[in-house]
Amino acid sequence: MNILLFTLILLLGAYLAGLAGSLTGLGGGVVIIPLLTLGFHVDIRYAIGAALVASIATSSGSASAYVKEGITNVRLGMFLEIATTAGAVIGAILAIYTPVNLVAILFGVMLIFSAAMTLRKKHEDALQEGSKLSYVLKLNGSYPTKEGEISYKLKNIGGGFSIMTIAGVLSGLLGIGSGALKVLAMDTAMRVPFRVSTTTSNFMVGVTAAASAVVYLQRGYIDPGIAFPVIIGVLAGAFTGSKLLMRINVKSLKVIFSIAITLIALNMIYNGINHKF
Amino acid sequence: MGKNKKITDYDMEQLIGQVLRYGVLTSGIIAIIGGVWYLIQSGAGFPNYTSFSGEPARYTSLTGIIKGLTEGSAKEIIQLGVVILIATPILRIVFSLFSFILEKDRLYIVITLIVLLIILFSMFGGLKV
């Protein structure tokens, strides 16, 4: 294998990761880690560094398109970022004491969970009555639709905050955005409408990943030779994805992608159990 | 009051969108420049990624990266792109802080400061080892 070929394959893989990540809302990291570890036998620690870079690139690359539409709930995102960034720092500390095989198995389990979450039906209806805390923290909001502004109220703020902390820990430990857990916290626990939870989650992924990326950069997990094709590929893919999103039906794409990542996940778990990392 | 607040929120979101867009664009362009330079310089050998040894200090600290830039070294140029990419969402929080200060929203000034402090702790808290 020479450097040029490695770079070109990685560039193509990162492009597809950014594309799939922005279309399905799963982020770029879930594709980058298996590609590097299973495909190129790269040490999982370099792969985690690359996945963090990919998560930030997908998030910032597609968030710049979403924020413009005024759907993102900035206050909700900021409040929950206390949980995710604190979790991410804890995850980055735990990473030192976690054997790499366990990291691979956890990653596989997380992938299967993400695949299931992608296919689950989300809440689209807005609550009319929020919990007390939702008023105190000014988390209720509204978003524009073709039929006019729809206002929504939130409940179970504590539950959502707790799940977000776990999402942050896993993000710091595995290098992924944990978008699926973020949507679970907002959708199932807090009843944030689907369009708002998707964009707000994406908005938060970049900040969460940045909180642990500063640690991993100092630890030497981010290799320049791996990082540059990942940045370029993921950004180009996320950009294409956000353009395509308006025009294509992502439903069948989500099914195909979910099956694919479940197979990859089983492979990661199998290799993790057999100490192949 | 209600209407005023809406306009600032909207303006701020536009500004945040711009910050994210220019941040990723700058990072991407620097990564391309550094990457092409890296490929031109690279010889026949292939780096050993199968076992983890950690990157040397010149790629992992700001002073190391800046020193490499003055020498025109390709890998440090790429790492500068990485640093800008990581800085983009952090800069977004700083902009949100300004926005909440303008709106005199004390609760969210405090919440945003907490998020910033956690990230600063992550940067300078000696979590490296």
Structure notes:
The complex is a heterodimer of chains A (277) and B (129). Chain A is mainly alpha-helical. A two-stranded antiparallel ribbon of chain A has the order 1-2. Helices cover 74% and strands 4% of the residues of chain A. Chain A has one domain. Chain A has helices spanning 3-24, 29-40, 44-66, 74-97, 100-119, 132-136, 157-174, 179-189, 194-219, 224-244, 251-273, and strands at residues 141-145, 148-152. By secondary structure, chain B is mainly alpha-helical. Chain B has a domain at 2-41 and 55-96. Helices cover 78% and strands 0% of the residues of chain B. In chain B, α1 (2-41) packs antiparallel against α4, α3 crosses α4 (74-102) and α4 (74-102) packs antiparallel against α5 (106-124). Classes of the chains: A mainly alpha (277), B mainly alpha (129).
Low-confidence stretches of chain A: none
Strand content of chain A: under 5%
Query: What portion of residues of chain A is helical?
Result: over 70%
- Main sheet characteristics of chain A: 2 strands, antiparallel
Strand order in the largest sheet of chain A: 1-2
Q: Using only CA atoms, what is the Rg of chain A?
A: 18 Å
**What global shape of chain B is seen?**
elongated
Label the structural class of chain A: mainly alpha
Count of DSSP H/I helices of chain B: 5
How large is the share of residues in beta strands of chain B? under 5%
Rounded mean pLDDT of chain B is 86
Q: What is the tally of helical segments of chain A?
A: 11
Mean pLDDT of chain A: 87
What is the helix content of chain B? over 70%
- Number of extended strands of chain B: 0
What is the subunit arrangement here?
Answer: heterodimer
Structural class of chain B: mainly alpha
What are the secondary-structure elements of chain B, in order, as H or E?
HHHHH
